Amino acid sequence: MFERWRGRIAARKAEWAIADSIFRNVLKKADKKLEGYNTPMVRREANYYVGNNLKNNGDYTGAFSYYKKCIEDSKKIDGDKASGFRINATLYSGTIMETKGKYAEA
User: Fold this and answer.
1) CA angle (85 as vertex; 77, 21 as ends), nearest 5
2) pTM score of the predicted model
3) How many Cβ atoms sit within 10 Å of the Cβ of residue 42?
4) Mean pLDDT in residue range 7-19
5) Of 71, 7, 6, 17, which is closest to residue 40 (Cα–Cα)?
6) 85: which residues sit within 8 A by CB, 6+ positions away?
């Protein structure tokens, strides 16, 4: 929990490199199925913040893939309800598709 809060604080302060590093570490621990990390809520948050860092650095393809994972986990957690993570990940994904000229997908 502390690790995720540290990542959130870094993101809030626009310390994107720090947030990215923390949340990539969270995703590695989730992949190893470590207790407290391998839940859809943890993965959703980590994927969202890694996606944000990639988007901010112009890696739209990489960001899109992380946002897609965030949206998938959000659907598992929230069903038809829309969380802030899902709304923003969907919005940013649409913006990325628009940037690539894929208006129908956006």
Assistant:
1) 105
2) 0.91
3) 21
4) 95
5) 71
6) 44, 45, 48, 70, 74
